[in-house]
């Protein structure tokens, strides 16, 4: 069956933890390389790709503040962690021959580009993968919100949220054998039932701009490309 939507430009959001493999912390280069390969296989289809990678494998602001750090300082540390992850992904993608730009919400010119919207759009048109780093640049936000924000700014057709499970379930499928996966679910239902797709700020921003969120498994080899070709299982969060 042909896909209902032909995707030309998408946002891929992954958590920092997706890069740590079986380790409890940090970056696992073979895992980063595997995900880069998944991204390349979609890039090969001619799809323009934006990426946002979290920082939870290195540092989370909330965890720091729970241990007594000042919250905003801890959040800036979390944002810096996302820059490290973005650089790791850039390195892995470029080793596969995919041109990329790391674009930071917080300028750090020696390391990567500052975020300038029109420049980022141009990179996408030139088929460079744009990896948006440092979240939104503001404390008290998350990288899920950054992904939704940049997806709107870049006019992406959807946010693809790569996770460990193949969609959104009514309860945790790793704990309950009778958990049911939604094929499609509304933004408001996700918010009301607290289905844990993304934080509420990100969901509301997607809802208000009619931006679909597609939750799929990044552990499934070829999964990302499959969904773009209309195959595989996933949940579409939409209005
Ligand atoms: N963060 C922030 N503002 C943003 C995005 C991220 O302050 O716009 C900080 C926040 O402290 C967060 C950390 O960066 O805990 C890492 O991001 P996130 O928790 O979203 O990463 P993920 O859970 O996706 O790995």
Automatic annotation (TrEMBL):
One Pfam match: AA_kinase
Protein name: Uridylate kinase
Domain Aspartate/glutamate/uridylate kinase span(s) in chain numbering: 9-217
GO molecular function: ATP binding; UMP kinase activity
UniProt-listed GO biological process terms: 'de novo' CTP biosynthetic process; UDP biosynthetic process
Species of the source: Aliigemmobacter aestuarii
Function comment: Catalyzes the reversible phosphorylation of UMP to UDP.
GO CC, one annotated term: cytoplasm
Locations listed in the record: Cytoplasm
InterPro entries reported in the protein's UniProt record: AceGlu_kinase-like_sf, Asp/Glu/Uridylate_kinase, Uridylate_kinase, Uridylate_kinase_bac
UniProt keyword list: Allosteric enzyme, ATP-binding, Cytoplasm, Kinase, Nucleotide-binding, Pyrimidine biosynthesis, Transferase
Record-listed UMP binding positions: 55, 75, 136-143
HAMAP family linked: PyrH_B
CDD domains (alphabetical): AAK_UMPK-PyrH-Ec (cd04254)
Residue sites binding ATP per the record: 13-16, 56, 60, 163, 169, 172
Regulation: Allosterically activated by GTP. Inhibited by UTP.
Family per similarity comment: Belongs to the UMP kinase family.
EC numbers: 2.7.4.22
Region feature Involved in allosteric activation by GTP, mapped onto this chain: 21-26
Pathway named in the protein's UniProt entry: Pyrimidine metabolism; CTP biosynthesis via de novo pathway; UDP from UMP (UMPK route): step 1/1
Gene3D superfamilies: Acetylglutamate kinase-like
Subunit details: Homohexamer.
Catalytic activity: UMP + ATP = UDP + ADP
């Amino acid at each position: 069956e042909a896909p209902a939507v032909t995707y030309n430009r998408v946002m891929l959001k992954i958590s920092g933890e997706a890069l740590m493999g079986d380790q409890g912390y940090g970056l696992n280069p073979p895992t980063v390389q595997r995900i880069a390969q998944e991204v390349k296989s979609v890039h090969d289809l001619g799809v323009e790709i934006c990426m946002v990678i979290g920082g939870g494998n290195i540092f989370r602001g909330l965890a720091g503040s729970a241990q007594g750090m000042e919250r905003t300082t801890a959040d800036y540390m979390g944002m810096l962690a996302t820059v490290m992850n973005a650089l790791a992904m850039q390195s892995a993608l470029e080793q596969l021959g995919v041109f990329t730009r790391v674009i930071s919400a917080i300028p750090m010119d020696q390391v990567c580009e500052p975020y300038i919207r029109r420049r980022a759009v141009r990179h996408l048109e030139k088929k460079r993968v744009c990896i948006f780093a440092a979240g939104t640049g503001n404390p008290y936000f998350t990288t899920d919100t950054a992904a939704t924000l940049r997806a709107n700014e870049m006019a992406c057709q959807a946010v693809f949220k790569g996770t460990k499970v193949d969609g959104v379930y009514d309860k945790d499928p790793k704990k309950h054998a009778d958990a049911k996966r939604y094929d499609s679910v509304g933004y408001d239902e996700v918010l009301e039932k607290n289905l844990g797709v993304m934080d509420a700020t990100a969901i509301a921003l997607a809802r208000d701009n009619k931006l679909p969120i597609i939750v799929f498994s990044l552990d499934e080899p070829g999964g990302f490309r499959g969904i773009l070709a209309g195959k595989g299982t996933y949940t579409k969060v939409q209005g």
